[in-house]
Amino acid sequence: MNKRPKPAGHKQTDIASASSRKKSNSSQLNSQMAPSRRTFWMITGCGSVLVLLVGVGLLANRWFVDSKVNDLMRDCNQAVKSADWPTLERLARQWAVLEPESVKPWTMAASASRAMGDLGGCAQYLSQLPDSAPVEAFHELSLLQMESLVQPLAARDTCVRTLRIYPDDRESSLRLLFIHSMLCHRDKVVTEVKRAVRAGADTRATYAYLFTANWITFANGSKLNQFWIEQDPENEDFLVAALTHEALYRVADNTTGGESSRKDSELPEINLQTRIDGLRSRFPNNIELRMIEMSKHLQAGQVDRLGELLESPTDKLKVDNRYWRYQGWFLASHEQWSEAIDAYHRALTLCPVDFSSQNELAAILRRTRGPAESQSMQTKANLGIELELAFLKASNFESVSQTDYGRLADYLELCGETDLSNGLRKHLR
Q1: Model's pTM, two decimal places?
Q2: What CATH architecture is 68-206?
Q3: Segment 134-150 mean pLDDT
Q4: Where are the domains of the chain?
Q5: Cβ pair 116, 85 in contact under 8 A
């Protein structure tokens, strides 16, 4: 069957029709995209305007703050000239709100509080000082906390902060060492001594604190802690330190033959033991209380009681040289020489300047291995004992003679503490 021919122009008609449809679809697509484009440009335009407004707002706010600060600064200076302390405090506080990282408003507010007799307020303002404050401002704060406000723990924290900002500050380091010593925190004393030496914050007294950390006591240590207890009756540090200073001072004063040793020795020992028992029941994990009791039993020759306290040592006791010294004495009393020697060596590893361990170890070595084996150890121990007496007799570390500090440098070197020995010698030239 013959197919009928298609009419001429049919193909062109289809093409035109397709083209027409494409134009129609394109128009529809453009009409759909048009609102989206308009929305985009509207959002972009609004965003630009918003950014511009925010920028203008920030500039306006900065101008307002600067203007307000200038007014407050002028008024504060005027209040200082007229000694109008209430006004100065009020204006300085407003200034500090606007510029909390500025030193001046805080020091002005502190000065106003001090002038009005409000030492607590003065300390509060100084506590807000930024790290950029001069070191003298932190000295003022820690002294205020330590003496006027009777806040030794706050003073300690201020010294720690000061040394973080000014690591070579000698005044804060010595103040911190004093507080740690008064609280009988011997491990913290040693840590601060080594930090101070590394940072260049050391003085001659720094090395005295290290040497005496094992046994130092203060004539007023117990009374000062009792004073702190009045402000904070339940504080464990104060309660334990007061008893520790009293117990150690009896021993130290008996060593030097001091007049007060005869007075203190008249106190009944049962009273001391009762107080130890009372505090140990309240603070069973306190190492210093355990050490006081160990020392007491060792001096009295109560071997069995000492042995009971040496049992089941905690992790903290295991890193305390005094524990291993007492352990060495206990083992030696049972003629367990090898074990005793090991215990003393552990004590000296933890604390190379423990002359008591050196002396006791030298005695065992002399007995078990002969005089030649004990000679070097005994030489160190003898020098340490002589230095102990020199430091105990001195009224304070500053009054210790240059000669004795030189001997301390020799002792540190004999004990293998070469860096410390060299550090001390720098202060003796």
Answers
A1: 0.81
A2: Alpha Horseshoe (1.25)
A3: 97
A4: 68-206
A5: yes
